[in-house]
Amino acid sequence: MTNQKTMELSLTWTIPQHELREALRNKWLWFYALGFGALAFGLAQAAMSSAGYAGLGGFGRTAASLINSLLLFVPLIGLTVGAGVIAGERERGTLLYLLAQPVNRAEIFFGKALGAALAVLTALALGFGIAGLGLANDGGDPFAFLALVGYAVLLALASLAIGFVISALTRKAATASGAALIVWLALVFIGDLGLIGATLAFRPAPSGMLTLLLINPLQVFKLGAIFSLRATLDTLGAAGQFAMYQFGDALPFVLMALLFGWIVLGFALAFAFFARKGSV
After folding, report:
1. How many CB atoms lie within 10 A of CB 152?
2. Residue ranges in the chain assigned as alpha helix (H)
3. How many CB atoms lie within 10 A of CB 101?
4. pLDDT tens digits for 211-255?
């Protein structure tokens, strides 16, 4: 009995290790991470060269540009990694092999989720490491930078969870990747344009605008990132002002809770689709 239990635990831990190795072999993961890091480094150097006195004010400009870069790269990393996990195994036929082993679907799913999450965090660590080199002499607040990293991690995991939902619903890796790109475009571009269009067409109250913002994880990240930089939410218009009025100093905790909710909901939905009969 003891040997059988040890074998099961060993096999369970093998799943996230395997998934981590597979994800780290994805050239696009490193391309996105290096692209983000290089862009952040370039932004920091540009801000430093244009600053008046030893980088005075450079960090604020760099961080503002960094937020926009994160809105592009972080969801793309999470979505593309998550979308290929289950769909890729299903297409190659290895998912049936895994299900034949002495592990249940929950162990397979969450083992894969853990491995993919570790890969995404590794890519983010590389990107932020390069960005940190550029910001080292920028005279900024390290705590603000760490808060930005924290929000980016939550956004990456939320995007990974959405990618897992896509992967659980598709049978081919190419289809899942295409769907992930469509979702990315919808969240990044259509989300902003839709918000602007809704404002112009319906002129909703500030509470309505805030609701439209908070249903998009990217907009939640943007609110949190701006708040973490000690910047005014007036840059987000009436919705940002209403958010500060409504939640006050509790706003960052509300935003983190919303991102965490996206993570839990996304993985829960993905597991529900993965665990249903006939999903293989």
Report:
1. 24
2. 2-24, 27-50, 58-92, 94-99, 105-135, 142-169, 173-185, 191-202, 206-214, 217-228, 237-247, 251-275
3. 15
4. 777 888 998 898 888 887 766 566 666 667 777 777 877 888 889
| 184/182 Cα distance (integer angstroms) | 5
3-class SS string, 124-149:
HHHHHHHHHHHHCCCCCCHHHHHHHH
pTM for the complete prediction?
A: 0.86
Count the neighbouring beta carbons within 10 Å of the beta carbon of residue 155.
27
* Structure tokens, 274: 């993965």
CA-closest candidate to residue 85, choices 122, 129, 118: 118
Distance, in Å, from the CA atom of 204 to the CA atom of 210, rounded to the nearest integer, reads 10
